[in-house]
C-alpha cells in the first residue's frame, strides 16, 4: 500500500509538472516571439526615420546650393548692367528754361547806356558797317539810355555833341596823349555812339580838323 501511494503521488507530481511546463513554455515562446517582432519593427522604424532624415538633409543641401547659384547669377546680372546717367526730368527742364528766360530777361532789362566814342579815321573805313578797330581815343558814358530806335540814337548823339564841344579847344593834346599809336598823320576824329546795344553806330560827324601826333605829342600838320 505504501508503494502504491508513493507511486500515485509521484504520478500526480509528474502530471502537475507536465501541466505546468508546457503552459509556461508556450507563454515564454509567445513573449520571445513578440519581443523579436517588436525589435524588428522598431529597427525598421528607426531605419526609415534615418533614411528620411538623410533625404531631408540632402534636399536642404540641394536647396541651399540652388539658392547660392541663383544669388551668384543675380549678382553677375547686376554687375553687367551699366550705370546709365539719369535723364533730366520735366521739372529740371522747366527749371533750366526758366533760368535761361531769367538770364535773357536780365540782359534785356539792362540796356547799354548812351556812350560817346571818338575814333580816328585810320581806325575804320568810311561808309562801312564794320565796327571800328581798337579803342576810341575819347569815350564818355552817360547815366541813362534812350529808346532803341533811330530817334533814341539821335538823342544820344546830341548829348555826346554837347560834351565833346567843351573839349574841342584842347582836342589836339587830348587825342595825341590818349591814342594807341605813336604816329598820327592828318587823320580826322569822328563821333560814334552806343545806345541800348553794345554796338557802335557811326554819325559821320567830325571835328573839322586834321590831327598829327609824334611820340604822343601833337604837332601842326603840314599844308598840302
From TrEMBL:
Region annotated Disordered, chain positions: 39-111
Domain of life of the organism encoding this protein: Eukaryota
Stated name of the protein: Follicle cell protein 3C-1
Biased composition (Acidic residues): 67-79
Keyword tags: Signal
Signal peptide extent: 1-20
Protein's organism: Psylliodes chrysocephalus
Biased composition (Basic and acidic residues): 49-66, 89-103
Keyword hit for Signal: yes
Amino acid at each position: 500500500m505504501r508503494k502504491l501511494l508513493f507511486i500515485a503521488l509521484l504520478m500526480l507530481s509528474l502530471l502537475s509538472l507536465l501541466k505546468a511546463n508546457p503552459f509556461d513554455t508556450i507563454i515564454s515562446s509567445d513573449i520571445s516571439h513578440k519581443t523579436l517582432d517588436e525589435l524588428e519593427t522598431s529597427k525598421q522604424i528607426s531605419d526609415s526615420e534615418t533614411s528620411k532624415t538623410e533625404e531631408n538633409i540632402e534636399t536642404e543641401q540641394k536647396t541651399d546650393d540652388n539658392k547660392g547659384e541663383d544669388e551668384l547669377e543675380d549678382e553677375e546680372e547686376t554687375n553687367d548692367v551699366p550705370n546709365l546717367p539719369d535723364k533730366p526730368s520735366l521739372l529740371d527742364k522747366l527749371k533750366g528754361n526758366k533760368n535761361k528766360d531769367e538770364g535773357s530777361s536780365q540782359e534785356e532789362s539792362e540796356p547799354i547806356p548812351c556812350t560817346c566814342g571818338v575814333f580816328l579815321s585810320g581806325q575804320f573805313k568810311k561808309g562801312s558797317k564794320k565796327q571800328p578797330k581798337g579803342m576810341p581815343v575819347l569815350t564818355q558814358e552817360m547815366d541813362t539810355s534812350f529808346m532803341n530806335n533811330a530817334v533814341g540814337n539821335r538823342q544820344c548823339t546830341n548829348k555826346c555833341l554837347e560834351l565833346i564841344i567843351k573839349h574841342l579847344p584842347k582836342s589836339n593834346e587830348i587825342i595825341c596823349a590818349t591814342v594807341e599809336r605813336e604816329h598820327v598823320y592828318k587823320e580826322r576824329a569822328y563821333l560814334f555812339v552806343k545806345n541800348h546795344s553794345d554796338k557802335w553806330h557811326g554819325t559821320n560827324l567830325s571835328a573839322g580838323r586834321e590831327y598829327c601826333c609824334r611820340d604822343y605829342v601833337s604837332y601842326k600838320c603840314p599844308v598840302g
